[in-house]
Structure formats: structure tokens, C-alpha cells
């Protein structure tokens, strides 16, 4: 399995988390990316963006925030 890429977008408001996710996914054909966000809005926006790009999305709540897990 390839390495996990972690994008820490905690504390940032949209569109920052989506832009950071877009940059992390650029050029990736497959992989495992975890995006750390701290609002439901950011979680939803990152999830929607990744799904539109063909990534499988799951989320986990973590101490006051969320981990959006992207796999392909």
C-alpha cells in the first residue's frame, strides 16, 4: 500500500480546504489521502469535490473535527 498523504486544513475556512485537497490530488491516479477539517461545511465541500473527481469518500469524527478519507 502506498503512503498516506495528510492534508491539515483545520482552522481554515472554505474554499481553502478544497483548494488544498485539489492540490494534493493533482496528478494522483490512486492513493489514500486524509484531509483534516474542523467544520461540517468544509467536510461536505471536500467530500463533494473528491466524489466529483472519482474518489471514494468516507468521514470520521475526531475531537471537535473531521477526517475526510479519500481512496482510489
Distance between the termini: 12 Å
> Which regions have little confidence, pLDDT < 50, spanning 5+ residues?
none
Kindly report the average pLDDT value.
Answer: 95
Helix-and-strand structural type: alpha+beta
Q: Please state the oligomeric state of the protein chains shown.
A: single chain
Helix and strand pattern: EHEHEE
Biggest sheet details: 4 strands, mixed
**Fourth CATH level, the homologous superfamily:** TusA-like domain
Number of helices: 2
What form results from the Cα inertia axes? globular
Broad CATH class: Alpha Beta
Q: Roughly how much helix do the residues carry, as a percent range?
A: 25-40%
Q: What CATH architecture label applies?
A: 2-Layer Sandwich
Question: Approximately how much beta-strand content do the residues carry?
Answer: 25-35%
What is the tally of beta strands?
Answer: 4
The strand line-up of the biggest sheet is 1-2-4-3
Give the number of domains.
Answer: 1
> Which fold does the CATH topology refer to?
Translation Initiation Factor IF3
Radius of gyration: 11 Å
Structure in words:
The protein has 72 residues and is of the alpha+beta class. The protein has one domain: 2-Layer Sandwich (Translation Initiation Factor IF3). It contains 2 helices and 4 strands, in the order βαβαββ. It has helices at residues 16-25, 40-52, and strands at 4-8, 32-37, 56-62, 65-71. It has a 4-stranded mixed β-sheet with strand order 1-2-4-3, covered by helices on one side. Helix 1 links the parallel strand 1 and strand 2. Helix 1 packs parallel to helix 2 (40-52). The longest helix has 13 residues, at 40-52. The N and C termini lie close together (12 Å).
Amino acid at each position: 500500500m502506498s503512503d498516506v498523504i495528510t492534508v491539515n486544513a483545520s482552522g481554515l475556512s472554505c474554499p481553502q480546504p478544497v483548494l488544498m485537497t485539489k492540490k494534493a490530488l493533482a496528478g494522483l491516479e490512486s492513493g489514500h489521502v486524509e484531509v483534516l477539517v474542523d467544520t461540517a461545511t468544509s467536510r461536505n465541500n471536500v467530500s463533494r469535490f473528491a466524489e466529483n473527481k472519482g474518489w471514494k469518500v468516507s468521514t470520521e469524527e475526531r475531537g471537535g473535527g473531521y477526517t475526510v478519507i479519500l481512496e482510489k
